[in-house]
Design a protein that fits this description.
- It is a single chain.
- The protein is an alpha/beta fold and about 200 residues long.
- About 35% of the residues lie in helices and about 15% in strands.
- It contains six helices and five strands; from the N terminus they run βββααβαβααα.
- It has a five-stranded mixed beta sheet, sandwiched between helices.
- Strand 2 and strand 3 form a beta hairpin.
- Helix 5 crosses helix 6.
- GO terms for molecular function: 3'-5' exonuclease activity; nucleic acid binding.
- It holds the Pfam family RNase_T.
Length: about 200
């Protein structure tokens, strides 16, 4: 278990969608030090998961101040290729949600850095979803997670990857309630791509 009670082993799917968030160690966008996932079931139930990663690069004080993760925190943790290999099939067979486009860019950068294949999942940006559901927030704090937390009364610990993934998933679920319809592309319909 970690300090927020997230799962430390992966649940079995399929899921309606998976929200994903990463935290990074320093100046390189691909220097991922934590991956958080939130698995959303057909009935809207959510399960958060997070894993620490050795970014194999120095931590910047700014980043550590933001998320609380340091070289000491990740001592003995696995590196990105090992962790990503374990997550790959699960992520690649589900629609993914991220809050902004930073997380997809960070994963892509880490994959390039380590020479491993990137997932081909469909990504939904929960910022875009939030803009449609709560247009009144434009110019009134915006659609970042911190402002949505305040506006929607969400409870989560900002800048923890598992917590932010759970928040992004919750934003989508609440937006669907406001709009009165489910996002049609967030459904279980992806098939495992066979590699030949």
């Amino acid at each position: 278990m970690n300090k927020f009670g997230h799962l430390t082993t992966l649940p079995t799917g399929p899921f309606r969608f998976i929200a994903l968030d990463v935290e990074t160690a320093g100046k390189m966008i691909g220097g991922i030090c934590q991956i958080g996932l939130c698995f959303v079931g057909e009935t809207g139930d959510v399960q958060a998961y997070s894993v620490l990663i050795d970014p194999e690069e120095p931590f910047e004080p700014f980043n550590t101040d933001l998320h609380g993760i340091s070289a000491e925190t990740v001592a003995g943790a696995e590196t990105f290729p090992t962790v990503f290999a374990r997550l790959f099939d699960l992520l690649n067979t589900h629609s993914l949600v991220q809050h902004s486009t930073f997380d997809e860019k960070a994963l892509t950068s880490a994959c390039v850095r380590y020479g491993v294949p990137m997932i081909t999942s469909h990504w939904t940006n929960s910022v875009t979803v939030a803009r449609q559901a709560w247009p009144e927030l434009k110019g009134a704090g915006g659609h970042g997670l911190a402002n949505l937390k305040k506006h929607l009364g969400l409870e989560f610990h900002h800048h923890d990857a598992g917590e932010d993934a759970r928040a992004a998933a919750t934003v989508v679920l609440k937006a669907e309630e406001i709009v009165g319809t489910a996002l049609s592309h967030l459904k279980i319909d992806r098939q495992l791509k066979l590699k030949f």
